[in-house]
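U., I forgot to send this yesterday:
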Amino acid sequence: MMTDPHIILEIATADLETTRQAIAGGADRIELCANLGEGGTTPAYGTMRICRERFSVPIFPIIRPRAGDFLYTDDEFRTMQLEVELARSMGFEGVVIGLLLSDGQIDLHRTARLRELAYPMECTFHRAFDRCLDPNQALEDLINIGVNRILTSGQHLTAPEGVSCIAQLQQQANERIIIMPGSGVRPENIQALRAKTGCIEFHTSLRVWKESQMQFRHPNFSGAQESYLNPDINEAEVRKMKE
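Result:
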């Protein structure tokens, strides 16, 4: 089966190795993260630099100073500003951001400031969108400040659960902003999601774990996942999704 050249598959990766695996499998774009188990935080400088040096596909580092909610202090926002400036200076094609106010609205002032700092990079607003009060108003607000795409699961835990909302957002967007379904997007459901939503960009991590190659395993830590399992992406699964 030939791959539709208009469909974009973005893979969220956790480090250098999973980035390599995703690209080898045919990923069109990378969302580069640390701590994917916590929803993704800003990757380390060294990871960003070597990924930029090694790979030519578009890479969008996530700009998220910590796990948890998306309500940030002044110091955390300053951190995000510095990280956006760093990503731009390193030649990345885009960044992934997301900021909310305590009442559930988009933090438009700060989002607009990060958008300005990022230019000419693209900006994706991540799944903080799914925690906002009014997704229809939020979509219009993000269009107005020049955000390029919204990563969303349709205000549900997974995109298949939120497919009706995603389809409505795609219709409302009317090609003014990209709606990119993410969370729970798998090889077995991506065709149905495409058919039901009309979206042409999709986001997934396809994250699994593989056994460490450590020969010595301390008996007190033999059952600890963080000690002897490493993040992994199956290149064949990426190819299957592409097809």
